[in-house]
Amino acid sequence: MPHDDLHECRVFLTRPIPEPAITYLRSRCAHFSMNREDRVLERHELHERVAGAHGVLSLLTDRIDAAFFAAAGESLRVVANMAVGYDNIDIEEATRRGVMVTNTPGILTEATAEFAWALLLAAARRIPEADRFTRSGQFKAWAPMLMLGQELSGKTLGIIGAGRIGTAFALRSRGWNMRVLYSSRRDNKILDNELSAQRVDFSVVIEEADFLSLHVPLTPETHHLIDREVLQSMKSTAILVNTARGAVIDEAALVEALQRGEIAAAALDVFEEEPVIHPGLLELENVVLAPHCASATETTRTAMAMTAARNLVQALSGETPENLVNREVKTSGARC
Ligand code: GLV
After folding, report:
1. Quick check: is 336 in a domain?
2. What is the CB neighbour count within 10 angstroms for residue 322?
3. Residues 282 and 312 occupy one common structural domain
């Protein structure tokens, strides 16, 4: 029996998410509705559906900009994004309108770090390429020069951004006995103490890394952080891994660098214009591609959905949500 204690709240969910979160939202919110189709809503559809909503549970594929806020109207109190990143949301506009924005930090750290390693290993040992080769019947016999890749042990691992995910990724290098360099705004005691890692200048990480993994959010400062010049200063044997956001890399410059052999390989879970992939990437053998799925485990996606749903309910109940991004927006203390 639902106890829909938020009697007056209209809540909209933009796409199906793990069931426990839907059940929870239904049980708490009297006026709950959702897009039942497993697809991203067109902008005009999204705008129509959110009109008059008090709370919206959004995904990173939803553009939450000034037009969205205008379409939702004055009733909107909270946008709960089911992602740690919130570059899809105009935070300034949300804050100006007094709309709380929440995200889902922490929960997807381990899954994302694991996936970054899966990508790195896949690129270093050429696993997708080996799989394509084997399936296509080209495997005739063991061969001394077949599918030679790179070993990880003893190499230098470069981390750009030593926050939660960057730290979890770096800690997993222990088994490979690697030298760890990182670039970050501040010292990371965990990495320094547990790995004897060194915080060095961005340019040093770039020049010395055998394997470079990106773990920064997308902001105006990190947009195209990895550009042509940076790619040219990397080792020609280097492998670049990106599980952060596509636009942290200048994708056209990356294609050129890979074509010219300026770096050895790239393993990418994220792209500049998702879901569009630069055609040059699709043609290259030394690229591993994944459909933005680093956090895609049953456990993590369920936890992310529940966290987003709880944040939304907390905001509508007049509480300060656990993962409020724009802390300048104060809750009125009242239920909607
Ligand atoms: C995934 O990319 C996220 O930001 O949660």
Report:
1. no
2. 14
3. no
